[in-house]
Design goal:
Distance between the termini: 20 Å
Oligomer: single chain
Helix content: 40-55%
Strand content: 15-25%
Number of helices: 4
């Protein structure tokens, strides 16, 4: 992917993440309140964190609900939305494991 296209993709991801933060679920708001500002064992968590990947030579991204960089730890709070995305969730898990 060209640098220009990568830059555009990063900008799109930023917009998507901001929108997801604005429209967070009740469970996400509760969890965020408990882990923000290093309240959980002094670990820094990010919410609505984009992960970029290249599958079949097409770079794209997905957004994890929460991510702790120090521990390489992702938390997804599954709700009604996720019950319709089981196959996509399985694909994301495979990408993250590799």
């Amino acid at each position: 992917m060209s640098l220009n296209n990568k830059t555009k993709l990063v900008e799109i991801a930023k917009v998507v993440c901001r929108e997801l933060r604005k429209n967070s679920t009740k469970a996400e708001r509760i969890f965020w309140n408990e882990v923000r500002n290093r309240k959980f064992y002094g670990k820094k968590f990010y919410r609505q964190y984009p992960f970029f990947h290249d599958i079949t030579e097409k770079e794209t991204f997905f957004v994890a609900d929460f991510f702790c960089y120090d521990e390489k730890f992702i938390i997804e709070l599954d709700g009604k939305y996720h019950q319709y995305r089981l196959k996509k969730d399985e694909e994301r898990t495979k990408i993250l494991i590799t």
